[in-house]
């Protein structure tokens, strides 16, 4: 990677959050009645990496988005300087959370939202057509993100855009990455952690979840609970399938069976 692992004072920048229910404008909204938020009062963050895991629709991306907006970042992604909206669809949960920050100030911040990264790439091209200044795309490696594959554009962001002492929120960074690229992402993640960065990451990837300097929170029917890596459903199901793919495929494809992947 060519940068070396220079040690920097670690974070955290974000220490905890509180949910202030009296600020909920529509407390009966479906989002707020998810188990993740029904009993949420506060949540602490790891000084290096905090992971959110859970089923689709469990609320992890919603909470990550709220943290991003409350931190001054754009709902669709990008740095603090991005201010565009393709379609407003965020939950407004950010209005009901209070972020507990340390005295340290981060030097950079960014919100990656996998589903709207295309919109960020388009906004970069629109801004770069304007007059004056250095092209924004130089911070992403210099090549148009639209002229790369989805995975290459994601990796260009990870490899080029992040800075020392940064605060980064990533929603499903594995979405466009092959398993090999996910391993390379882990190496980059560790490099940035050594440079004083703090990450909050929502992911389904058992590879990315393996990063050791982290706290994993599971979003499930009981709420938001800390969980060990090997106890996550992501690890158990993946390991169970790979340990005996032939048997598990036979179970999954037999309509008379329970269709449960066996460890």
Describe this structure in words.
There is one protein chain. This protein is of the alpha/beta class. It has helices spanning 35-38, 60-70, 117-128, 150-161, 179-194, 233-243, 245-252; strands at 14-19, 42-44, 49-54, 97-101, 108-113, 166-171, 198-202, 214-220, 223-226. It folds into 2 domains: 14-231, Rossmann fold (3-Layer(aba) Sandwich), CATH 3.40.50; 232-263, no CATH class. The chain has 7 helices and 9 strands. The two termini are 37 Å apart. The model has no long low-confidence stretch (mean pLDDT 86).
Task: Provide a quick synopsis of the model.
The chain contains seven helices and nine strands; from the N terminus they run βαββαββααβαβββαα.
Give the topology, please:
Blueprint: E1 14-19, H1 35-38, E2 42-44, E3 49-54, H2 60-70, E4 97-101, E5 108-113, H3 117-128, H4 150-161, E6 166-171, H5 179-194, E7 198-202, E8 214-220, E9 223-226, H6 233-243, H7 245-252
Major sheet summary line: 6 strands, mixed
Low-confidence runs of at least 5 consecutive residues: none
- What is the first-to-last residue Cα distance? 37 Å
Beta fraction of the residues?
A: 15-25%
- What number of domains? 2
Report the CATH topology name of the largest domain.
Rossmann fold
H/E element string?
EHEEHEEHHEHEEEHH
**Protein structure class:** alpha/beta
**Helix share, percent:** 25-40%
Tell the overall outline. Answer: globular
Number of strands: 9
Classified by CATH, the class of the largest domain is Alpha Beta
CATH architecture of the largest domain: 3-Layer(aba) Sandwich
Strand order of the largest sheet: 5-6-7-3-8-9
Number of distinct helices: 7
């Amino acid at each position: 990677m060519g940068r070396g692992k220079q040690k920097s004072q670690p974070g955290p920048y974000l220490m905890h959050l509180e949910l202030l229910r009296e600020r909920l404008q529509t407390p009966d909204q479906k989002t707020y009645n998810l188990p993740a938020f029904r009993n949420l009062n506060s949540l602490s963050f790891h000084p290096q990496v905090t992971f959110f895991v859970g089923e689709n629709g469990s609320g992890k991306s919603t909470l990550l988005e709220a943290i991003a907006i409350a931190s001054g970042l754009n709902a669709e992604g990008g740095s603090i300087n991005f201010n565009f909206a393709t379609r407003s669809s965020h939950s407004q949960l950010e209005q009901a959370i209070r972020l507990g920050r340390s005295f340290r100030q981060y030097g950079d911040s960014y919100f990656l939202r996998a589903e709207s990264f295309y919109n960020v790439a388009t906004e970069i091209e629109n801004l770069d057509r304007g007059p004056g200044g250095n092209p924004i795309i130089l911070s992403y490696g210099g090549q148009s993100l639209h002229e790369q594959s989805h995975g290459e554009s994601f990796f260009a962001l990870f490899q080029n855009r992040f800075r020392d002492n940064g605060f980064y929120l990533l929603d499903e960074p594995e979405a466009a990455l092959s398993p090999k690229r996910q391993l390379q992402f882990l190496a980059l993640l560790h490099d940035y952690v050594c440079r004083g960065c703090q990450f909050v990451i929502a992911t389904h990837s058992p590879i990315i979840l393996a990063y050791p300097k982290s706290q994993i929170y599971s979003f499930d029917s009981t709420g938001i609970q800390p969980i060990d890596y090997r106890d996550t459903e992501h690890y158990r199901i993946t390991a169970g399938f790979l340990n005996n793919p032939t048997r598990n495929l036979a179970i999954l494809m037999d309509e008379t069976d329970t269709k449960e992947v066996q460890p």
